[in-house]
Amino acid sequence: MSFHARATCGAILMISLAATAAQAEQKRYDFENFHSIKVTENIDLTVVSGSGAYGVDARAGGLSGVSRLQISQDGPLLVIDRKNRWSPVMGLLDGPLQVSVELPELLALAVHAGSEASVSGPVAADVAFTVTSGSHLEVAGIDVRTLEIGIRAGASMSIAGRCDQLKVTASSGSDVDASDLRCKEVRATASSGADIDTTATERVQATASSGGDISVDGGPAVTDVTQTIGGSVRING
Fold first, then answer.
1. What are phi and psi of 94, to 5 degrees?
2. Which range of residues forms the domain containing residue 184?
3. Which CATH number belongs to the domain containing residue 32 in this structure?
4. Angstrom distances, CA of residue 80 to CA of 11, 36, 105, 119, 211
5. Using 50, 70 and 90 to split pLDDT, how confident is the model at 236?
6. Rounded mean pLDDT, 93-109
7. 7 assigned to some structural domain
């Protein structure tokens, strides 16, 4: 086969693969009676809390479609994963995996291994979020009593709304933008190059170490600040 023929075949193959990758497959799963979610392995997740019913829907294009997904339930925990670890090559051929979840009340969400997630709607009065390993989480318009955030390993998070008490811990180059989350009391800990922007209206306890950085808006009347090994805390206004 000539070089020109091989090149033509290669081009046809790539076009065929691209066309296959563009096709989308959808699937609905029957899960219910869960209040917590864990997502991992570069999956895009949309969570709508406050729904009157449970719903789990997946959408995927490419050669494998939704067959790449492995969704299971362990008691109150819904686990969204891949059957095989994600790779950039397969990601190019198969495209993104997208999962949408609706539930009456979200209590906890963990986002791992390069996944991206968003949360909207009313969540539980006491809620927790964990974000790790280059993942990203966006939370809009929450109104809760207590909120706990743990973020590490280059992950990022943006959150808006209000709470009575916030505990946020960030490490290893992670970033938390909670400046639009107005909380009465905040306890923030940043280490190893992590960054936290938060708003406390009454009281804040902030600890920054090893290059960690904390910025506090809201002009809290009571402040307790600890800065060690290059850590920085700023109380604004």
1. -95, -25
2. 25-235
3. 2.160.20.120
4. 35, 11, 18, 15, 34
5. very high
6. 92
7. no
